Amino acid sequence: MNPRLPIVSGAELSNALQQRGFAVVSQKGSHRKLRDGNGRTVIIPIHREVTPGTLRAIIRQAGLTVEEFVDLL
Fold first, then answer.
1. How far apart are CA 50 and CA 62, in angstroms?
2. Which pLDDT score is estimated for 73?
């Protein structure tokens, strides 16, 4: 069964990915770029609420499963 996606803000998403080894590379306006040691890059909208489709895409780009992401929160 697929776990339900949580409702998270861009800041919460950024903090969770930083716990997983991503580092903030830059920010332009309301979008923050994070990169990990493997060269994997994700762009995060720093909004009050990240839409489910965007959140799922970012989790996939980060190489995580939804379960792994939820454990980081």
1. 15
2. 86
Evaluate if residue 1 carries a pLDDT over 70: no
Question: How far apart, in whole angstroms, are the C-alpha atoms of residue 41 and residue 72?
Answer: 18
Closest residue by Cα to residue 6 from 55, 46, 43:
55
Q: 18 CB contacts (<8 Å, ≥6 apart)?
A: 24, 34
The size of the chain, in residues, is 73
Please tell me the distance from the alpha carbon of residue 20 to that of residue 2, in angstroms, as a whole number. 21
d(CA 11, CA 28): 14
pTM surpassing 0.70? yes
2 in any annotated domain = no
End-to-end C-alpha distance for the chain, whole angstroms: 20
Residue 28 covered by a domain: yes
**Largest CA-CA distance found in the chain, in angstroms, rounded:** 37
